[in-house]
C-alpha cells in the first residue's frame, strides 16, 4: 500500500508500523511484510492493546503462521504485551499492493517483480505469457518454463539472452 | 443454519479431497516442474478447504442447539464438549459424513486422468466462485473472491495440458480419450443439487442479485448449480475444440450420490491414509 493511502496514525501506531518493517517474508526474506502489502491495519487501543490485521497472500501459504508469530515476537521484544494478530480475507490480496521499494528489492535479489494487474498473464490467452523482463540483464527475450514455482507466489522463467533461469513473482 | 453449514462443508470437502488427491503426486510427477505444479495446486485447494472448514466450525460452535442430532454427524468422533475445528472436520468424520462430489475422489490414474479431473473441476470451481463472491454470507464471499484468483491459474494450467495431450502424440491422445470416457459420467453430479439443498430451499440463487454493489444484500448465499452447466459446457467445449477432442453428449448417463454421502469405494482409502495419524494419536500436533 502506498504511504499516502494510509490513514493518519497516532504516535504509538506509527511506532508499531515501524516495528513491522522488521518482519520479513520467510520465503522471500528480502521483502518485509509491509513491502508485500499484507498488513492491512494497525490499532493501538487506549489500554495499550495492539491489534494487527493482516491478509493472506495465497489461501494455502504456509508462511502466514510464521509471519503471525514473528509479528508477535517483534512486538513483545519492544514491550508490547497485549497483542492480537487478526486475519481478514476481504479485499483479497493483490500484488498491486506491493511497494515500489519491494519491487526493487525483489529485482536486486534476482526475482522478477510482479507486473501490474492490467498486464496480468491470466488476461492473456492459453499458452501465451506475460512479457517478463530478466532481472539480471533486463532483456525482454524470456520464456515461461512453468506456471508454478518453488512457492505459491512464483513461476519459473528463463532468459533467452543471458540464458539464466529466474523466478517471477507472479501477478495475483 | 444447518443447511448453510452443510453447504460450507460440502464446498470444503470438494477442495480437500481433490487437494489430497493432487498431493499424492508429490515426488511422483512426470517432470520436476509438473510435480511442483501439482503440489502448488494441492496447497491452494487445501488452503481453500481450511478457510471453508474454519468458517463452518465457527458457525457450528456458536449454534444454539448443541445437542441437535445432525450435529452428531458433523462432530464425527470428536469427544463430547470439545469444540469443532477445521481439523476435526477434516480428520474425524467418516466416509458417509463427507459430501464431496464423486469426481474429486476418483484415483489419479495416469497423467491424463489427473489432468482431465483437474480441468473439469477447476472450470466448475471458477464459475462457482465467480458467483459466490457475491454471496450474502460475507465470509463465504471473501473466501470465494480469494480462491477465484488461484482457481484461474488452475484452469489455465489444466486447459493447456488438455490441449497438449489431445493434440499431442497418438499415445497422449489415446490416454486422454480414455480419461474423458472414464470421468465424464461423474461430471453430471456437479450440476445437481443434493436433496438437503432442494428440500430446504438453500438454493436461493446468488445470481439473483449478482450484478452490482447491492448484490450482497439482496442475493442468497449459495449458487444454483444447474445455472452453471451451460457456461461449463461452453468453456470445456472451447478447450476440447482446441485439443481436437470431441465433446461427449451431456445426456449420457451420470453417476451421483457423493453429495449425500454415498461414495465410490475410493474415498475410504483416501480417508484411511489422510486420517490415520489423528485416529491413531488423537489430538497430536507437530
Automatic annotation (TrEMBL), chain A:
Q: What Gene3D superfamilies does the record point to?
A: Fe-S cluster assembly (FSCA)
As given in the record, the signal peptide range reads none
Cross-referenced Pfam families, in alphabetical order? FeS_assembly_P, Zn_ribbon_PaaD
Alphabetized InterPro entries for the sequence: Fe-S_Maturation_MIP18 (IPR052339), FSCA_dom_sf (IPR034904), MIP18-like (IPR002744), PaaD-like (IPR011883), Zn_ribbon_PaaD (IPR056572)
Q: Which residues form the MIP18 family-like domain?
A: 13-76
Q: Where is the PaaD zinc beta ribbon domain?
A: 125-170
Question: NCBIfam families per the record?
Answer: PA_CoA_Oxy4
Q: Which PANTHER family match?
A: 1,2-PHENYLACETYL-COA EPOXIDASE, SUBUNIT D-RELATED (PTHR42831:SF3), FE-S PROTEIN MATURATION AUXILIARY FACTOR YITW (PTHR42831)
- Recorded protein name is Phenylacetate-CoA oxygenase subunit PaaJ
UniProtKB/TrEMBL annotation, chain B:
Question: Superkingdom of this entry's organism?
Answer: Bacteria
Q: Name one GO biological process term.
A: phenylacetate catabolic process
Q: Which SUPFAM superfamilies match?
A: Ferritin-like
Q: Which Pfam families match?
A: PaaA_PaaC
The family database entries (InterPro entries) matched by this protein are listed as: Aromatic_CoA_ox/epox (IPR052703), Ferritin-like (IPR012347), Ferritin-like_SF (IPR009078), PaaA_PaaC (IPR007814), PaaC (IPR011882)
What's one GO-annotated cellular component? cytosol
For this entry, the protein name equals: Phenylacetate-CoA oxygenase subunit PaaI
Q: Look up and give the organism this protein is from.
A: Filimonas effusa
Amino acid at each position: 500500500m502506498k504511504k499516502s493511502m494510509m490513514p493518519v496514525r497516532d504516535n504509538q501506531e506509527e511506532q508499531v508500523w515501524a516495528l513491522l518493517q522488521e518482519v520479513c517474508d520467510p520465503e522471500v526474506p528480502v521483502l518485509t511484510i509491509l513491502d508485500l502489502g499484507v498488513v492491512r491495519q494497525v490499532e493501538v487501543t487506549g489500554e495499550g492493546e495492539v491489534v494487527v490485521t493482516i491478509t493472506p497472500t495465497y489461501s494455502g501459504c504456509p508462511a502466514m503462521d510464521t509471519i503471525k508469530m514473528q509479528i508477535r515476537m517483534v512486538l513483545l521484544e519492544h514491550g508490547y504485551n497485549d497483542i492480537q494478530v487478526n486475519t481478514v480475507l476481504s479485499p483479497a490480496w493483490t500484488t498491486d499492493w506491493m511497494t515500489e521499494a519491494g519491487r526493487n528489492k525483489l529485482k536486486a535479489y534476482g526475482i522478477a517483480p510482479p507486473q501490474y494487474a492490467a498486464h496480468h498473464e491470466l488476461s492473456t490467452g492459453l499458452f501465451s505469457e506475460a512479457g517478463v523482463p530478466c532481472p539480471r540483464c533486463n532483456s525482454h527475450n524470456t520464456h515461461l518454463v512453468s506456471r508454478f514455482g518453488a512457492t505459491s507466489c512464483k513461476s519459473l522463467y528463463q532468459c533467452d539472452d543471458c540464458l539464466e533461469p529466474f523466478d517471477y513473482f507472479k501477478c495475483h | 443454519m444447518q443447511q448453510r453449514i452443510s453447504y460450507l462443508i460440502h464446498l470444503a470437502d470438494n477442495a480437500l479431497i481433490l487437494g489430497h488427491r493432487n498431493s499424492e503426486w508429490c515426488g511422483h510427477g512426470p517432470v520436476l516442474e509438473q510435480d511442483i505444479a501439482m503440489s502448488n495446486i494441492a496447497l491452494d485447494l487445501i488452503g481453500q478447504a481450511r478457510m471453508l472448514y474454519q468458517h463452518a466450525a465457527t458457525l457450528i460452535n456458536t449454534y444454539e442447539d448443541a445437542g441437535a442430532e445432525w450435529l452428531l454427524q458433523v462432530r464425527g468422533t470428536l469427544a463430547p464438549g470439545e469444540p469443532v475445528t477445521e481439523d476435526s472436520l477434516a480428520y474425524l468424520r467418516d466416509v458417509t459424513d463427507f459430501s464431496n462430489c464423486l469426481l474429486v475422489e476418483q484415483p489419479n490414474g495416469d497423467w491424463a486422468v489427473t489432468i482431465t479431473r483437474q480441468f473439469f473441476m477447476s472450470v466448475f470451481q471458477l464459475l462457482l466462485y465467480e458467483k459466490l463472491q457475491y454471496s450474502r454470507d460475507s465470509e463465504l464471499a471473501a473466501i470465494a473472491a480469494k480462491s477465484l484468483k488461484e482457481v484461474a491459474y488452475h484452469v489455465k494450467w489444466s486447459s493447456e495440458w488438455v490441449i497438449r495431450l489431445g493434440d499431442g502424440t497418438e499415445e497422449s491422445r489415446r490416454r486422454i480419450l480414455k480419461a474423458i470416457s472414464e470421468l465424464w459420467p461423474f461430471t453430471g453430479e456437479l450440476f445437481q443439487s443434493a436433496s438437503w439443498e432442494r428440500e430446504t430451499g438453500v438454493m436461493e440463487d446468488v445470481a439473483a442479485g449478482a450484478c452490482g454493489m447491492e448484490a450482497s444484500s439482496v442475493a442468497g448465499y449459495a449458487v444454483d448449480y444447474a445455472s452453471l452447466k451451460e457456461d461449463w459446457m461452453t468453456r470445456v467445449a472451447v478447450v476440447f475444440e482446441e485439443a481436437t477432442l470431441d465433446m461427449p453428449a451431456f445426456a449420457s448417463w451420470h453417476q451421483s450420490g457423493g453429495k449425500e454421502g454415498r461414495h465410490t469405494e475410493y474415498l475410504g482409502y483416501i480417508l484411511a491414509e489422510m486420517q490415520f495419524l489423528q485416529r491413531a494419536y488423537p489430538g497430536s500436533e507437530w
